[in-house]
């Protein structure tokens, strides 16, 4: 009898838990679904807020037309380049520094580790940061997207903690065989810390891809504008852009947009363009994410 009651209570508990997570998943997914169905629906209906659950008047011309906006291709290339290069260098630097800070024989190890970590708690502010970047000749410079983000104290902490969970005997055995620091890092440590590196890759890639404030403060050269900054401008200027599109006759792309686009369609479409790349990249690294964060956050 007790067993039967236990089974019933377990089933009720499972139903409640599954129902909760299904509802939570729907709440998380629905904003993306709502955004998408409005980008492929009749623009006039979308502008009036009449598209809520089911797309109406399905078409895909919004994506084709918005992609023709001036400067979008170059901006996408800059964003892709900064994401790939910046993420790669951040992951390598975080991995190596996190490993080095576990080596007890490192000169001044505690001092340098604290010197890096203390930057998490103190920020000089926007003006000193801008003056520093200007003095380093990083205004209107592609390196402004790369260099400041290479060293991340939070990432270093995650890697250091992860490396400390690896048995020291592996490194000691390699040292006995004559392996140096770089060899140990490349051939022993790197393969073992893939989960935490994948986690850092997600953090860094999302941050690089979504960033636009550095462009806002440091870049005036349109050739160095990132996709997010261009789309940020389009979203903020959607009403005036839609009016310009309707009244302008300067170019094929503008002429095509004049017949169809509204401020709402521009906002929805450019927002979807920003989100899509991360939605494709994240699932690939997600399998490492939980393991990486758990091991990197708790010293075992």
TrEMBL record:
<dbReference type="GO" id="GO:0005886">
    <property type="term" value="C:plasma membrane"/>
</dbReference>
<feature type="transmembrane region" description="Helical">
    <location>
        <begin position="266"/>
        <end position="285"/>
    </location>
</feature>
<feature type="transmembrane region" description="Helical">
    <location>
        <begin position="143"/>
        <end position="163"/>
    </location>
</feature>
<dbReference type="InterPro" id="IPR000515">
    <property type="entry name" value="MetI-like"/>
</dbReference>
<feature type="domain" description="ABC transmembrane type-1">
    <location>
        <begin position="76"/>
        <end position="279"/>
    </location>
</feature>
<comment type="similarity">
    <text>Belongs to the binding-protein-dependent transport system permease family.</text>
</comment>
<keyword id="KW-1003">Cell membrane</keyword>
<keyword id="KW-1133">Transmembrane helix</keyword>
<keyword id="KW-0472">Membrane</keyword>
<dbReference type="Pfam" id="PF00528">
    <property type="entry name" value="BPD_transp_1"/>
</dbReference>
<feature type="transmembrane region" description="Helical">
    <location>
        <begin position="75"/>
        <end position="99"/>
    </location>
</feature>
<dbReference type="GO" id="GO:0055085">
    <property type="term" value="P:transmembrane transport"/>
</dbReference>
<protein>
    <submittedName>
        <fullName>ABC transporter permease</fullName>
    </submittedName>
</protein>
<dbReference type="InterPro" id="IPR035906">
    <property type="entry name" value="MetI-like_sf"/>
</dbReference>
<keyword id="KW-0812">Transmembrane</keyword>
<keyword id="KW-0813">Transport</keyword>
<feature type="transmembrane region" description="Helical">
    <location>
        <begin position="184"/>
        <end position="206"/>
    </location>
</feature>
<feature type="transmembrane region" description="Helical">
    <location>
        <begin position="12"/>
        <end position="36"/>
    </location>
</feature>
<feature type="transmembrane region" description="Helical">
    <location>
        <begin position="111"/>
        <end position="131"/>
    </location>
</feature>
């Amino acid at each position: 009898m007790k067993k039967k009651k236990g089974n019933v209570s377990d089933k009720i508990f499972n139903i409640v838990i599954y129902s909760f997570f299904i509802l939570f998943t729907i709440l998380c997914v629905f904003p993306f679904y709502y955004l998408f169905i409005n980008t492929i629906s009749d623009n006039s209906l979308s502008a009036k807020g009449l598209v809520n659950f089911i797309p109406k008047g399905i078409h895909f011309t919004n994506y084709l037309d918005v992609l023709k906006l001036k400067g979008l291709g170059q901006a996408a290339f800059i964003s892709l380049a900064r994401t790939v290069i910046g993420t790669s260098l951040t992951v390598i630097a975080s991995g190596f520094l996190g490993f080095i800070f576990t080596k007890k024989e490192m000169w001044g190890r505690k001092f340098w580790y604290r010197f890096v970590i203390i930057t998490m708690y103190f920020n000089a502010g926007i003006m000193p940061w801008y003056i520093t970047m200007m003095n380093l000749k990083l205004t209107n410079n592609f390196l402004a997207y790369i260099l400041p983000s290479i060293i991340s104290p939070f990432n270093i902490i995650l890697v250091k903690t992860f490396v400390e969970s690896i048995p020291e005997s592996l490194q000691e055995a390699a040292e006995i065989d004559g392996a140096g620091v770089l060899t140990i890092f490349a051939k022993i440590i790197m393969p073992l810390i893939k989960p935490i590196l994948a986690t850092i890759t997600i953090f860094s890639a999302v941050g690089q891809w979504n960033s636009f404030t550095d462009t806002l403060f440091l870049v005036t050269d349109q050739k160095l504008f990132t996709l997010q900054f261009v789309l940020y401008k389009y979203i903020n200027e959607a009403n005036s852009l839609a009016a310009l599109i309707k009244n302008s006759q300067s170019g094929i792309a503008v002429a095509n947009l004049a017949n169809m686009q509204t401020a709402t369609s521009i906002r929805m479409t450019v927002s979807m363009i920003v989100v899509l790349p991360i939605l494709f990249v994240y699932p690939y690294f997600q399998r490492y994410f939980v393991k990486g964060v758990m091991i990197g956050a708790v010293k075992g």
